[in-house]
Design brief:
heterodimer, A: alpha+beta, 21 strands, B: alpha/beta, Rossmann fold, six-stranded mixed sheet, 9 helices, 23% strand, cytoplasm (chain A)
């Protein structure tokens, strides 16, 4: 063999120099193409299946070839340089593939990672042709165990690529297809020309040893009729050896001729299997050796003997089409108990998602009759047993409408674009437009039912706004116990499919994974507000005049601002704003209201929510103060005081005139420009940056303001000092003023028990306040002085503690204080303070000197709740609609996510669960923090796109499950690969029912829309390797049987396809020997 | 402050945080790392509230500015100090190997940390300080390691006094942060885009 190769190449070189005729040139071009693709000596060249894994990255041609050749049995041959006369166009460049003859062929685009086609231009007599080497990955996929692929009817679409129909018609995975080049003058190749072209290939095949068939189109392009030829020099092969064929000489090649017949209206006798079987026998020129014997038995059946027919193998594939019918309630969830009950508490309809209409376009059922001797199947003019129910295998395919619309993502888009429109119009509009005047006139306009909203006009029905406000503010009476902010309906788990999928993160939890404090708690006040607002632009909305999201947001927000101020004024907690940070599901035992809970502002949520929490914290302080001092609040029975529990009564504090918030409120409602407000805030913060109170460095101030000091609140070291509460809680005996002794310590000087004083409750800060403070600290620099300044700025609380300690423990020393406050700085053995505390210049000592013995209740409060509440309110007032939106956008997305994740489909479909998990990942990774940090705009399109993908997947699952109730596994498989084998049993019954019902009217199973047959016979009868893998058949190609690549002796084969009242017949007839 | 001119050369500013019970030597660690000197905890005044130091370090040829926040360990300061957890990219939980209580307190500190920054946002490191006091050691290295393993944090023992392991601790923490760009990197502002304003007309169009 090795010598042969060398000879061939030498001959080739030699001919190249002497040839001059156009035909010879043409042959040379073909040969160089074949060599370029490695199609020599029976090699598959660049498409060597052993080197073509089912999923592979794109390699360039040389690499592929190098790999392929190395793997071939042929000795490595030096690659001839690319022929100069061949087209310089690189193989598989897209521009060359779009030949008109390929209309049905590969619609490849360059983005596919796998290349299954190489093109080259060849020229004969000035006519250009595209020669393409095409590969169908079916066998490779089987070999790698990827899936089951029908080898008798190769799928025209695999791996997302459309493959040439010839693959299906011939059952061949490697073919060469010639077509007229796009720029060619004549697109039609007449019969004479086709013959000449084929002859050229026959010679080229002889010269190169290429055994890949070539197909040349003839006649009308759209008919896709081809003639073809392949020459298979017999070569030694394991299987051949087994079959005793090794005696065949090299020159006794097998020539296979291919032919296509397209008959528009075939005669009736040729429309059934019996008819075309006779045609097959006739066309293939098969001699009925058994004719005499068979005559008696089968006289009526065309005269061919049973024995002959038994040697003809038939497989068939019937396709049934079912167009989806209109189903208004397609999204109705079959498992009703799961769906509707859980949400019945909510007043709002669920957010819709998925497409508007049933996304299912049609379904295709393929009934596959496995390869069997033709006598097995009965299909003649009068009698047939070939209907779907008899088929060995059913394959169901679902075809969905193009994904163009997703309700949920459109809602998001609407919301976002109404915001961008607002931002744009704001930029364009005159500054005056957004001034006070506009804002001020808001209420009156709203009453009239319409309102001019900053540059854009939106109709907002006043009653719609009122309804929302009512629901938010009054449906839950403020006296009701705070509703858990993060309780979410527990996910129902269906054991069926849960195993394959990771956990789906519920919306409440996902919000905490968002980047930096960007969402609001699940079911909190703002969450509910957003539910209403998003509902406004949802198609399900009951709103009277749907309008832009921003329009409504601003109308509602303006109304809410009034309400917030009112809550503060009435000292009534804003509902659904939990100041105890009940964020985890486990803690919805709010009714029990454990007294140890301490109010705090949860930084994990966004600033708007923090500000509302601040207001509630301030209200709680005020309520606690009033409770301590009954004279302040005659109606102290208010059950809304969450921090009131566990507070020992205090000495009466002087009455603080209740501040009338009217004045400030008026100005707030007038909505000064946000700039003014921020400026004010900043100044205020600069003055009082530390310790969340207005008094930072002003220890002295304390004295004058003492009289006005508001009631101190409970001691409450609770939440953050387990050690001390442990020590204190036993409360052996109460000292004066509710004091408790600390351990058994005695004062150093007097020997009195060391008492834990009542301390001022610590203040609350929102994130922005901390940031300001942090900035201030940083700006001080890192010098020693700066450190001292910082310590001073933060010493107010320490001083307060010291003062209270002194008051509680007359005659105490700093040592006593340290023993309680910083026990590690007290050396019990030596009975003295640690060196750092004892140091003469120690700042603690300095403070100790300053601190005046005063019970906490008489000290100036560290936390000026009145001031802070006003500040929070003014912050809220200062936010423009656009700023509000930016703060709420992450929560809007979370809300939309909730709509998907709370649908039961996510628990039954791993596909749905997977896409929801991906969505969760996108939401988690999105840089929300930057959206908030600046005016910088972010590209939200990936988020929206992911939403769309998720809702569409979920929509499809819902749609299919409506057709095939409870068939979770079937639906899952269809969605995964777009088609699936229907298992016997309930799945088949279910599919049969759907196809029989076929909508409202039909009751019978439909007629096949397409019937395909493959008939094969082998001469001599050898081992036909045709099979449907896994199906009963004569032979089964084991997935790992790579020798089977060459082992398909393509002898006599006929493919017939009945569709649309025409029949296409593609025949392949093999002949021994060469008769050129 | 010096931000304006230093930012031009530093790649990023990283916020680190030192927490742990009082007297574990947080301030000493910081001083050792930033100033290269050692003052026994006895000699450094107990921190009131929070304080910070700045250090610019070189990692792979790039400069990073570290603002390291030191916190008071006393119970009474917790509310104040915990406010500063947010936004930190790295947290060092310090305990004293010669003081079991400070080790036992770690869980409390850790829980608190969890409330204020989720694990995705911050690199955590447990540091056992004062290994120079080997004779009075109360917490074995093994115990420290196991605890860190349980909480899935970095772990190292060091001594601010002998400076053993201090530099390495900070280096490792910073390296981990740098290796997780999502913790600190801002998205390139060049190609960010607003959702297209295609619907602008639609909304201005309904003006009647």
């Amino acid at each position: 063999m090795a010598d042969m190769d060398a000879d061939d190449f030498e001959n080739f070189e030699f001919i190249d120099y002497t040839t001059s005729g156009p035909w010879e040139k043409f042959i040379i071009q073909i040969e160089s193409c074949l060599k370029q693709w490695g199609l020599v000596h029976n090699s598959y060249g660049v498409f060597n299946p052993k080197r073509m894994p089912a999923t592979d990255d794109n390699m360039d041609l040389d690499q592929e070839l190098a790999l392929a050749l190395r793997d071939d049995n042929t000795p490595p041959t030096p690659l001839p340089p690319p022929p100069k006369n061949a087209s310089p166009s690189s193989p598989s460049s897209p521009s060359n593939e779009a030949g008109p003859t390929d209309s049905d062929g590969a619609k490849q685009n360059s983005s596919f990672s796998n290349v299954y086609q190489h093109d080259s231009i060849v020229t004969l007599d000035g006519d250009s042709y595209t020669l393409s080497y095409r590969y169908h990955p079916a066998k490779a996929r089987i070999a790698s165990g990827v899936e089951r692929v029908d080898l008798d009817f190769l799928p025209t679409t695999l791996e997302g690529i459309e493959h040439h129909s010839l693959h299906r018609w011939t059952g061949l995975t490697h073919i060469l297809v010639l077509s007229t080049a796009p720029n060619s003058t004549s697109q039609i190749i007449d019969l004479g020309r086709a013959k000449l072209l084929q002859s050229s290939f026959a010679i080229a095949f002889q010269n190169t040893g290429c055994n890949i068939p070539v197909f040349v189109p003839t006649g009308q392009v759209r008919n896709m009729t081809y003639t073809g030829i392949s020459i298979r020099p017999q070569h030694l092969h394991t299987r051949d050896t087994e079959l005793g064929l090794e005696e065949l000489a090299e020159d006794q090649a097998i020539e296979v001729r291919f032919n296509t017949l397209l008959v528009p209206y075939p005669p009736a006798q040729y429309t059934d299997l019996a008819g075309i079987l006779e045609l097959f026998i006739e066309r293939m020129g098969i001699d009925d050796d058994y004719a005499d014997v068979g005559d008696e038995d089968n006289g009526s059946q065309g005269g061919y003997s049973q024995q002959l027919k038994e040697q003809i193998f038939v497989s068939a594939l019937f396709s049934y089409q079912l167009d989806n019918w209109y189903d208004e309630v397609w999204r109705q969830w079959a498992d009703k108990a799961d769906d509707t009950t859980q949400r019945s508490r909510e007043h709002l309809p669920n957010l819709p998602f998925g497409p508007v209409q049933d996304p299912l376009k049609s379904m295709q059922l393929v009934a596959r009759f496995a390869s069997a001797p033709s006598t097995v199947y009965l299909d003649s003019k009068n009698l047939t047993d070939m209907d779907a129910s008899q088929a060995n295998i059913w394959i169901l395919k679902a075809i969905f409408k193009p994904d163009d619309y997703g309700l949920l993502s459109v809602i998001l888009e609407d919301a976002i674009s109404s915001w961008s429109a607002e931002v744009t119009s704001l930029l364009e509009a005159n500054k005056d437009l957004e001034s006070d005047k506009d804002q001020g006139s808001y209420t009156s306009l709203l009453r009239k039912g319409a309102r001019l909203i900053q540059g854009t006009i939106a109709m907002v029905d006043a009653s719609d706004v009122e309804n929302i406000i009512d629901d938010l503010c009054t449906t839950l009476s403020p006296s009701a116990v705070p509703v858990p902010t993060a309780s979410q309906p527990t996910q129902r788990h269906r054991s069926l499919s849960q195993g394959h999928v990771g956990r789906i993160v519920p919306a409440a939890e996902l919000g905490l994974h968002f980047r930096r404090a960007t969402t609001v708690p699940y079911n909190s006040f703002l969450w509910k507000m957003l539910r209403h607002l998003v509902d406004v632009i949802s198609p399900n909305s009951h709103i009277s005049y749907p309008t832009s999201f921003m329009g409504f947001t601003k109308a509602v927000w303006a109304e809410l601002l009034v309400q917030f101020a009112d809550y503060w004024k009435r000292k009534e907690m804003i509902p659904l704003i939990d100041i105890f940070g009940g964020v985890t599901d486990e803690f919805d035992d709010e009714s029990s209201g454990t007294p140890t809970k301490t109010a705090f502002i949860d930084f994990r949520f966004n600033l708007l929510h923090q500000k509302l929490t601040m207001i509630n914290c301030c209200i709680a302080r005020e309520l606690a103060r009033q409770q301590d001092d009954p004279s302040l609040s005659p109606s102290s029975s208010t059950p809304t005081s969450p921090s009131s529990t566990g507070i020992a009564s205090e000495e009466a504090s002087p009455v603080l005139p209740k501040e009338q918030p009217e004045a400030s409120q008026a100005s707030l409602l007038g909505s000064p420009g946000p700039d003014d407000d921020t400026a004010n805030d900043t100044i205020a913060d600069d003055k009082a940056p530390v310790d969340s109170s207005s008094s930072t460095s002003s220890v002295e101030e304390k004295e004058e303001t003492l009289a006005e000091a508001m009631g101190a609140v409970d001691l409450n070291l609770g939440n953050n000092s387990p050690e001390m509460t442990k020590a204190a809680s036993p409360a052996v005996h109460q000292g004066k003023g509710g004091l408790k002794p600390y351990k058994d310590l005695k004062l150093l000087a007097t020997g009195e028990p060391l008492m834990i004083p009542k301390l001022q409750e610590q203040g609350h800060m929102t994130e922005d306040m901390i940031q300001d403070q942090e900035e201030l600290f940083e700006n001080l620099g890192s010098s020693v002085d700066a450190a001292k300044t910082r310590a001073e700025l933060q010493s107010a609380q320490l001083i307060s503690d010291m003062g209270a300690f002194k008051a509680a423990n007359p005659g105490c020393t700093i040592g006593d204080f340290i023993r309680w406050h910083s026990p590690k700085d007290w050396d019990e053995k030596k009975g003295q303070m640690s060196a750092r505390m004892a140091d003469s210049g120690n700042f603690w000592q300095e403070l100790w000197e300053k601190a005046e013995a005063l019970p906490a209740s008489k000290q100036k409060p560290l936390f000026d709740h009145d001031y802070q509440a006003q500040k929070a309110l003014s912050y809220l007032n200062g936010q423009s609609g656009s700023q509000i939106f930016v703060q709420l956008l992450p929560s809007i997305c979370l809300l939309a996510y909730d709509a998907l994740v709370s649908h039961p489909v996510s628990t039954v479909s791993p596909q749905a669960a997977k896409v929801i998990q991906e969505l969760a990942q996108v939401l988690t990774n999105f840089p929300w923090d930057q959206l908030l940090a600046s005016e910088k705009s972010l590209d939200l399109k990936p988020v929206i796109a992911k939403f769309k993908q998720a809702e569409q997947t979920v929509g499809r699952v819902v749609s299919l499950l409506r057709k095939f109730p409870e068939q979770f596994s079937l639906v899952e498989r269809i969605l995964k690969d777009s088609e699936s084998i229907v298992e016997d049993g309930t799945e088949r019954d279910c599919v049969f029912t759907v196809f029989s019902a076929g909508g409202f009217t039909k009751t019978v199973f439909p007629k096949p829309t397409c019937r395909e047959f493959v008939m094969e016979t082998f001469d001599p009868v050898s081992s036909p390797s045709s099979s449907f893998v896994g199906a009963p058949g004569p032979t089964i190609v084991a997935p790992d049987d790579l020798t089977g690549w060459d082992a398909r002796p393509l002898q006599r084969r006929m493919y017939a396809c009945y569709k649309d009242s025409e029949v296409r017949i593609v025949e392949a007839i093999a002949k021994d020997g060469m008769f050129m | 402050m010096s931000d304006s001119h230093s930012s031009s050369e530093t790649v990023a500013t990283l916020k680190l945080l030192l927490i742990g019970s009082s007297g574990t030597g947080k301030s000493s660690l910081l001083m050792r790392f930033v100033d290269g000197v050692f003052l026994a905890p006895d000699e450094i005044s107990a921190t009131i509230g929070v304080d910070f130091k700045v250090k610019v370090i070189d990692v792979e040829g790039k400069k990073y500015k570290l603002t390291i926040w030191d916190t008071a360990g006393q119970e009474r300061f917790r509310t104040l100090t915990s406010s500063y957890y947010r936004g930190a990219q790295g947290v060092i939980l310090v305990y004293d190997v010669s003081n079991r209580d400070s080790f036992n307190d770690l869980q409390t500190w850790f829980n608190e940390l969890d409330t204020y920054c989720s694990s995705k946002e911050v690199v955590r490191m447990i540091v056992g300080n004062k290994v120079d006091k080997e004779s009075s050691r109360e917490v074995s290295r093994q115990e420290g390691q196991e605890f860190a393993r349980k909480l899935q944090t970095l772990f190292v023992e060091c001594s601010a006094k002998t400076k053993l392991g201090v530099q390495q601790a900070f280096d490792e923490l910073v390296q981990q942060i740098i290796d997780t760009p999502s913790l600190w990197q801002k998205q390139a502002p060049a190609n960010v885009r607003l959702q297209p304003n295609t619907e602008t007309q639609e909304y201005s169009g309904c003006a009647c």
